[in-house]
Design a protein that fits this description.
94 residues, Alpha-Beta Plaits, 4 strands, alpha+beta
């Protein structure tokens, strides 16, 4: 098991229930793969450095995750196919 940091940027026009449901869905994918979510830090709505998918803002979430390195490809594939996810970045925690 390895520790990772996952930063997701969601569409800014999501209401609170849809936003929380999407965060729970991501946590579920991590749990299903045998990993665990150690900490979730909601950064809130922030201005993007440049326009992405016609959006100037995004809702940021940082998750500290412990999971098997083999399961990261499935997690990133699932995130890539979610339309409300503007960007995501999964990196090994220092």
């Amino acid at each position: 098991m390895r520790k990772y940091e996952l930063v997701c940027v969601f569409q800014p026009d999501l209401d609170e229930t849809a936003f929380n449901a999407l965060v729970e869905k991501v946590k579920g994918w991590i749990s299903e793969s045998g990993g665990s979510v150690d900490k979730v830090d909601m950064w809130g709505r922030r201005k993007l450095a440049y326009i992405i998918k016609k959006q100037r803002e995004g809702q940021y979430v940082l998750m500290n995750v412990t999971m098997n390195p083999a399961a990261t490809a499935d997690l990133e594939r699932n995130l890539r196919y979610q339309e409300p996810v503007i960007r995501h970045m999964l990196s090994v925690a220092a």
